[in-house]
Amino acid sequence: MGGSRAQVNKPHKTRFSSKSSRNIHKISEKDKNRIAKSSRNVTQGARAARLQRNKMLREQKKAAILKEKRASSGSVSPPRVILLFPLSASVNVSSLAEDILRLLSTEVSGAVPSTVASSEYKLRATVLQAPHGDLLSCMEMAKVADLVAFVASATEENTCDYIDSFGSHCLSVFRSLGLPSTVVFIRDLPTELKRRNDAKKIVTSSLTSEFPEDCKFFPADSKDDLHKFMWLFKEQRLTTPHWRNQRPYLMAQKVDMVPDDSSPEKCTLLLTGYTRGHSLSVNQLVHVSGAGDFQLSKIEIMKDPIPLNARKDRNAMDSDDIQDVEVIRSLTPDPLSQEPLLVENVPDPLAGEQTWPTEAEMAEADRNQKQKRMRKRTLPRGTSEYQAAWIIDDTDEEDSGAEDDGDDDEDDEGMVLDEVESGFPSQEGTNNPDFEEDQASLYLRDSDEETENDSVMLEGENLTREQIEDEIKKIKEAHAEDEEFPDEVDTPLDVPARKRFAKYRGLKSFRTSSWDPKESLPPEYARIFAFDNFARTQKHVIAKALKMEQEGRDDCAPAGSYARLYIKDVPLHVASKLCAAFRTAPVILCGLLQHESKMSVLHFSIKKVDSYEAPIKAKEELIFHVGFRQFVARPIFSTDNINSDKHKMERFLHAGRFSIASIYAPITFPPLPLIVFKGAIGGGSPVVAAVGSLRSVDPDRIILKKIILTGYPQRVSKLKATVRYMFHNPEDVRWFKPVEVWTKCGRRGRVKEPVGTHGAMKCIFNGGLQQHDTVCMSLYKRSYPKWPEHGFPVLDA
């Protein structure tokens, strides 16, 4: 092997079959140059295509910006809405509004209307004055404002007085809604130039941190100051919140109603104003803010009463009656294309599988009927058996109210009550101990602090001042106890735990254990709608609305047109309240996208505001402002677990952190801001309790209510311990035996057997147990929101 030569690979010997074919793959110099040139051309062509594409994108953006600018400031655009908001109570915005309107309407004498057109500035504007102290009116005005002008006074003695508590509170609410373009007007500046500049610098430095970075400060004392601002405002590109650009809306300038002869309790509501955002179809549903969802019977597109060119029709500007305005075109809905006003799904009680009852089931039904007759009831003197059948027992109401979370899901892992145990198995009267236990369970008042709104009794009952104070004290104590000992409940002494907690089950792992989202759903789930793929449906609905906008269909009122909307089947008392409220706050109408009138389960990311100190209990009645829409809801709160499909319910909305609020409400496509109001107990105006945004629409989101039963070690021997006070009879120990136990010091174990007759039990742990430790058992059941009794705030007012 030492004299052997290393193997040399001879080129092409193994690649070609013959000598003549070895040179076929060789390429000439001419061909090499041609190929190199072509590859170079490909590289240069790709770069040129990339540059051309970037150029086209820039041109498209410029064209879009130019189109938007023409649409917002052209002759066909609606008047720009300017909201004057006083930062303190000492600011007089009425004089500033009059100065702006007289500057824009130089040819108008006498009283100046709130909407004017200026041929000098080539601008139409509507000036709104926010009433200081009325948060709801200010918020409704901010929803439709194109420019929010905050007005400050330079005559305040202290710099902290430039914005008071109400102004700061409103500003935080405006931020949650999404601020449009903003400016700050400074009034009452000194006339001397040096003092004027110094005062302006002081005000600007004090308020800069409260507003966005692009917010500019303008003096607004003289006509020249307002003249400079108007020239800048005319050329300014206004920014609006994204959620406002998704739907058409209208701020009513005139509100009227026409009684319906066929139905005395209904009427037709007439709203007149400029359509904004997108074109409004006569076939789509509309939402009147605070009143509900309705259909349109007609849209009349009228001649603009305030044209930008005043020479066109000077007489139309002086007319205040909507009947005098000329109707250009009338749109009527197509019965085949009109969106139906479908709110709830109508369940069919006979849609499920029906089987003929067996003889055993019929015998059991007869036995239950006899037992029902044997029950002793306290009835008024002279009540017949027929009349007694219509009287609802207080015990039945309390039992249905105590466990009204809407879920009838039975417990697994051996924790299921059969019909014999949960019924009344004997006809021997009240001497049966099982009967007495069941009677006691009926009178039990939800000892684990069920989250039903206990303050419902405030509705419809005249409570004294002492009763109201006691109710507030109880809620505050429950809130403090929930923060100190979350989820811990006491096992009742008079009711077996296997019956009191019959709806609860144990979980091996909260994160990985399975829970069927379709299991034992409440009756309310038969009334709501769900999507197979919500994101895909939202994408399809928005694309359909955009296509309708681009086609320019005949059944649509274009954006910027002056129109009168006929809203049919409005309750008469609702229309009367809207006409009365129109004097102080704007009446807003917004068009709804497809499916947005149907009920479902909505989830919001919500946070309690710092200024609201009272506890917010789950299932309390709250007013939700979601974009332009308003409705009443009774939410439940839960955590947001990213790595699990199950979420733990919270009995209170705790301050300082975000939670998820789940409610029954009409479907709404995100993103949308949320402002939550809670009514005052004394009957005053509602106050802001929380803010947030819409997260998703998903009825299958699993929210589990957790309770913890606690016991204490009596005797400890290495890994074994005798635990007492978790249960009070051995039957309960055997019932909950499959559930795992744990301690607050980190030990885990299981129940081995009951000890004695008073509910003590022997447990085995994975480590030594300390005498001062606490033994816990976690139980879960699924919770659902509460169906609201009142749909909309105006209906409840």
From TrEMBL:
Its main location: nucleus. The keyword Nucleus applies. Residues 370-379 have a biased composition (Basic residues). Residues 78-239 form the Bms1-type G domain. Residues 393-413 have a biased composition (Acidic residues). Residues 1-54, 336-413 are annotated as: Disordered. It holds the Pfam family Tsr1_G-like. It is found in: Nucleus, Nucleolus. Transmembrane segments: none annotated. Keywords: Nucleus, Ribosome biogenesis. The keyword Acetylation does not apply. PANTHER family: PRE-RRNA-PROCESSING PROTEIN TSR1 HOMOLOG, RIBOSOME BIOGENESIS PROTEIN. Belongs to the TRAFAC class translation factor GTPase superfamily. Bms1-like GTPase family. TSR1 subfamily. This is Bms1-type G domain-containing protein. The lineage of its organism: Eukaryota, Viridiplantae, Streptophyta, Embryophyta, Tracheophyta.
